[in-house]
């Protein structure tokens, strides 16, 4: 047994020695799978050597204490005529992107967000995720604006209505996905009933709808959704358990707080609604809000 233990320790040490980069003090944002491997190696190596210097070498894997992720919730981005008070004009949306650039924000992916919340994986100190609820067709031109700025986003689709008069088509989804845009489930066909069904505790019906949406992803996109956006903000611990049982990693909710930080629950990510209803569509008010977020969550100007 002692020989086997010594062999395992030797293999662990060898893996740490011959890894692609021994020092991670200046390591940039790495894929979640790479981060987990390196963090595991760190834990094993520190457990064996008990040397504080090892932790310093790997410090570049982790986010600083000032790091946060702001998640914005949009619906329809209109160019001519708005459809509801939840809408934002394309001109205002472009201004929002410029303002976020001005304040040093950078776009991250869903796996980046999960790795940060769960493990403190390194992400930009001022990170942002654009989410677009209900899969409106306007997400296509909005995604182009983001792409021109080197950013991406997440569209929450109601899978039972893909290709309808107002929602993007399957071809649109595939094209956007090929360009790095991401998609979350936002129910299958019962979107407008989630609040009522939750109040009545009809969890069996809710689960069937969630599973149907997941099956749509598997059948048409050849993957399970990484994230789920709670329709109407309908959330409780039982719905969270349903998502967890289906291997959903991220749950997008409504507003609880301005930003998300390491240690927060990945299955309830707080978002800020940007719409004409909340007045944050107005670029002046949007910038004032962004400035307040930065001042409240960072020691840097």
Structural write-up:
The structure is a single chain. The chain contains 11 helices and 10 strands. It is of the alpha/beta class. It has 2 domains: 2-61, no CATH class; 68-296, Alpha-Beta Barrel (TIM Barrel), CATH 3.20.20.370. Helix 1 packs across helix 2. It starts with a helix and ends with a helix. The relative contact order is 0.13. Residues 1-26 have low confidence and may be disordered.
Describe, in short, the structure shown:
The chain is of the alpha/beta class. It has helices at 2-17, 32-49, 52-57, 90-102, 110-119, 139-148, 170-178, 194-199, 203-221, 237-245, 283-297, and strands at 68-74, 77-78, 88-89, 106-107, 126-133, 154-157, 182-185, 227-229, 250-252, 272-273. Strand 6, helix 7 and strand 7 form a beta-alpha-beta unit.
Record keyword descriptors for this entry.
301 residues, alpha/beta, TIM Barrel, 44% helix, disordered N terminus
Write the layout of secondary structure elements.
Layout lengths: L1 H16 L14 H18 L2 H6 L10 E7 L2 E2 L9 E2 H13 L3 E2 L2 H10 L6 E8 L5 H10 L5 E4 L12 H9 L3 E4 L8 H6 L3 H19 L5 E3 L7 H9 L4 E3 L19 E2 L9 H15 L4
Parallel strand pairs: 1-5, 1-10, 2-3, 4-5, 5-6, 6-7, 8-9
Helix pairs in contact: 1-2, 4-11, 9-10
First-last Cα distance: 57 Å
User: For the record, what is the CATH homologous superfamily label of the largest domain?
Assistant: Glycoside hydrolase/deacetylase
Query: Can you tell me the CATH architecture of the largest domain?
Result: Alpha-Beta Barrel
Residue windows where pLDDT falls under 50 for at least 5 positions: 1-26
Order of helices and strands: HHHEEEHEHEHEHEHHEHEEH
Q: Which outline best applies? A: globular
- What percentage of the residues does DSSP assign to strands (E)? 5-15%
Task: Tell me the major beta sheet.
Answer: 6 strands, parallel
- Our count of domains comes out at 2
In the CATH scheme, the class of the largest domain would be Alpha Beta
Helix content: 40-55%
Name the structural class.
Answer: alpha/beta
Mean pLDDT across the residues is 88
Cα-atom radius of gyration = 21 Å
Provide the CATH topology of the largest domain.
TIM Barrel
């Amino acid at each position: 047994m002692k020989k086997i233990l010594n062999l395992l320790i030797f293999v662990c040490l060898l893996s740490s020695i011959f890894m692609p980069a021994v020092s991670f003090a200046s390591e940039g944002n790495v894929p979640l799978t790479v981060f987990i491997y390196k963090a595991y190696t760190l834990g094993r190596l520190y457990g064996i050597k008990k040397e504080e210097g090892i932790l310093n070498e790997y410090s570049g894997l982790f986010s600083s204490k000032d790091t946060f992720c702001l998640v914005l919730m949009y619906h329809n981005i209109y160019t001519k005529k708005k459809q509801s008070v939840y809408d934002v004009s394309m001109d205002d949306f472009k201004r929002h992107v410029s303002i976020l650039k001005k304040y040093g924000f950078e776009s991250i992916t869903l796996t980046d967000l999960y790795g940060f919340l769960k493990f403190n994986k390194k992400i930009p100190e001022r990170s942002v995720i654009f989410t677009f609820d209900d899969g409106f067709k306007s997400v296509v031109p909005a995604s182009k604006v983001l792409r021109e700025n080197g950013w991406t986003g997440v569209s929450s689709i109601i899978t039972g209505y893909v290709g309808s008069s107002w929602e993007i088509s399957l071809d649109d989804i595939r094209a956007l996905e090929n360009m790095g845009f991401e998609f979350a489930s936002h129910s299958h066909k019962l979107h407008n009933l989630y609040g009522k069904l939750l109040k009545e505790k009809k969890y069996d019906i809710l689960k069937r709808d969630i599973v149907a949406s997941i099956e749509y992803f598997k059948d048409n996109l050849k993957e399970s959704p990484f994230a789920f956006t709670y329709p109407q903000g309908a959330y409780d611990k039982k719905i969270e358990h349903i998502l967890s049982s289906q291997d959903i990693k991220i749950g997008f909710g409504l507003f609880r707080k301005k930003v998300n930080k390491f240690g927060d629950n990945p299955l309830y990510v707080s978002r800020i609604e940007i719409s004409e209803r909340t007045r944050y569509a107005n670029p002046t008010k949007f910038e004032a809000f962004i400035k307040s977020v930065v001042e409240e969550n960072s020691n840097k100007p």
